[in-house]
Amino acid sequence: MKKILLTIVIGASLNACTFLKSSKEPEKETTAKMESLPQEQKSTIYDFVVKDIDGNDFNLADLKGKKVMIVNTASECGFTPQYEDLEELYNKYKDQNFTIIGFPANNFKGQEPGSNEEIKKFCTSKFNVTFPMMSKISVKGEDQAPLYEFLTKKSKNGVLDSEVEWNFQKYLINEDGTLAKVYYSKVKPTDSEITDWIIGS
Question: What tens digit of pLDDT does each residue of 96-152 get?
């Protein structure tokens, strides 16, 4: 009789373990799905549509086949004279499948306080800027623009994590829309490393 009872108890315990194990399987499956989500995020800039400085849609997919420099700009920064270098670079290589996109941002000590209209007037009158300028955005923090989330997060761009440290930080984008390199503010747009990348040497 004791043997029969022992067998029943063991059998019940095994059944309980089997039930608990099977009831946990969906949790493991959900976890696996959650972990795979970052791989499904955008991997090129071509999925983004931004606003140009006049408020019109600017579809980054239209830049397919071009190398692109994305730079956050400011009108009252020690690096503001780099507008001149950016314009020089743009004019030299714009016919060689290269372009520059400027994103005014007020993230650093309020050095871009103006409206889009004021920024446009400043850029054109003082530096004769002709490369595409976009509407003012935030490049870091809780209100960071989606494009800059892509540029700064490896889980989205598939290449590297970075942080926008100051105005005139430069993100280089390959012809296929993937992130290539990042250069910080002190590196001039006309630096030989950047021009070598543009011409492919």
Answer: 999 999 999 999 999 999 999 999 999 999 999 999 999 999 999 999 999 999 999
Two tokens at 131? 């490369």
The greatest distance separating any two alpha carbons of the chain, rounded to the nearest whole angstrom, comes to 101
- Distance, in Å, from the CA atom of 144 to the CA atom of 131, rounded to the nearest integer, reads 23
- Please list the active-site residues: 77
DSSP state for residue 134 in the 8-state scheme: B
At how many degrees (to 10) do helices 82-93 and 116-127 cross?
70
DSSP class of residue 168 equals T
pTM: 0.79
Instruction: Tell me the CA distances in angstroms from 12 to 1, 16, 17, 83, 118, one per residue in order.
Output: 17, 6, 9, 77, 77
